[in-house]
Description:
The protein is α+β, with helices and mostly antiparallel strands. Helices cover 51% and strands 22% of the residues. It contains nine helices and eight strands. A four-stranded antiparallel sheet has the order 1-8-3-6. It has a four-stranded antiparallel sheet with strand order 2-7-4-5. The longest helix has 27 residues, at 117-143. The model has no long low-confidence stretch (mean pLDDT 94).
Amino acid sequence: MDNLVKYFQNLGFTVDEATTLASAFHGKELNKGDFFVEANKISRSLAFLESGQLQYYFLDDNGEERTTYISLPNTFVTSLLSFLHETPANENIRALTRSKIWTISKEDLMHLKNENTKFKDFYISLLEWQICCIDKDRFDLITLTAEQRYEKLVNEEPDLLQQVPLQYIASMLGITPRHLSRLRTKI
Length: 187
């Protein structure tokens, strides 16, 4: 829980405020392959990823996995549409590695939001950031070439390239691992 407390402190919460917020979260260990969110089920929790990697993916019409994102430590994770609207998730979120998460139910999150103006501001900025990221990724997938998307990933999220297996990076970019290998040698 120390990492979560430090995360909130880095955002400007006092030690007492950060400790109170973190105490509303519950720790959970995920083994490699364990699901945090399963497609067609409602995502009822928001999680802070303390350690490990979580893969967002869906299965296409041919039953092939399509990775949309990989979350690394010190990020929040959920199937946003499912969590907010209490509808079945479109994607799966599973652990690529042994992972430690801190979860909070929607009910407890709303209670914190309603009771703490500073937390409410944090929550709104977190949602805004997520929406902007989704919009940016959608736009990039439509308007940029695979090479441009890879270059952007190199410049904006080098940690992903250093920590995540290349087959998942290729899937995120909408290309084959072989095409990614060619791009990597070219750039």
